[in-house]
Amino acid sequence: QPTTGFIDGTAGTVWSTQQADRPVTEGHDLAMALEDDWDERVLVTDDAYHDQDPQFAPGDEDLMLAWTQANLSQFDESRETQEEMFSEYDIAVATADAASPGEWSEPTVLTENHSEPGVLTHEPALAASSDQWLLAWERNDDNDLASVANSSVEYAVLELDDDEITTVRAGAVENATTPAVSARADGTFDLAVHRTADGFGNGTVEHRVVDSTSTSLEHAHDVDQLRSLDVADGAPVYGERGADRLQYDDGTGELESVKLDGGLQDPEEITLASDENGTVLAYRATREASEERSLVYRLERDGEWLTDRHVAGADDVVVWGSDGTA
């Protein structure tokens, strides 16, 4: 579950780890490393909570990390089912000064679900502008990962006020799943979600622009069995189950069909990142007549997509949980 970002031009990554000297019952913690010394690991969390699915977003002067947190001390012998355990997950955030990325604040929990055992919050997505962040997550009132019939995407624009994380504005998109966010060049944010039509994978991919005062719907695209989606600087991209191509909207509302190379199909774990030099698109996919999944990426230069490049996977090697940044 790695998440990546640049801190003053230096690449950093955060991931969820099981410490060797800690019992499994105390859960995973979050660790961080910088490219200056990848072998030097700094613990972001070191407690009896189970921390997973980190999302890392550096701002101009401060860093923010969001993740899913489980309060393991709340578990008891009467909670034996998966649904009862999932209801203990909350969305937590912490910050650090870019000058001292190894010193993180105490976590702030944004969703208090211990008092709502029938509600599941998960799938955080985080993006940073210069001094604000957009955090989105999925809420399921049925407490059922297999069902999206009663799901919504909640989001909050956050900022730091005297080192305290404050919510500038919050909102929600009903009947929605799979949030993806990014920062735009003008300081606003993108929010892409899957609006479900039938409680399954059909519906629409909707792209919104969010700032501290308003949210506006930009474009919507019909989708058949959504597999994965992402968004970067005004451009959403998504893949459908079993498809041999991705659908890319450069921000105009018109879709471009991006054919996968080498017989790849069924794209998932899509990651899109862009800067002034271009766009990089990464995903996992399966080759025809094979169950092995490969991690590949391709670059966009001057409006044209280059050929897919294989990173890892296949040949009896399993890869998953990739992330990318620009």
Give a verbal description of the structure:
This protein is an all-beta fold and 326 residues long. The protein has one helix and 25 strands. It has one helix spanning 82-86; strands spanning 3-7, 10-17, 29-34, 37-43, 49-58, 62-71, 89-97, 108-109, 120-128, 132-140, 151-161, 164-174, 176-183, 189-196, 203-210, 215-223, 226-232, 235-240, 245-249, 255-259, 264-275, 278-287, 293-301, 304-305, 309-313. The strands form six sheets. Strands 21, 22, 23, 24 and 25 form a five-stranded antiparallel β-sheet that branches. Strands 1-2-3-4 form a four-stranded antiparallel β-sheet, with no helix packed on it. Strand 9 and strand 10 (132-140) form a beta hairpin. The longest helix is centred in the N-terminal third of the chain and has 5 residues, at 82-86. The radius of gyration is 19 Å and the shape is globular. The model has no long low-confidence stretch (mean pLDDT 87).
Features:
326 residues; mainly beta; 5-stranded antiparallel beta sheet; 1 helix; 25 strands
Residue windows where pLDDT falls under 50 for at least 5 positions: none
Shape, per Cα inertia axes: globular
Strand/helix succession: EEEEEEHEEEEEEEEEEEEEEEEEEE
What is the helix fraction of residues, given as a range? under 10%
What is the makeup of the main sheet?
5 strands, antiparallel
For the record, give the distance between the C-alpha atoms at the N and C termini, rounded to a whole number: 18 Å
* Count of discrete alpha- or pi-helical segments spanning 4 or more residues: 1
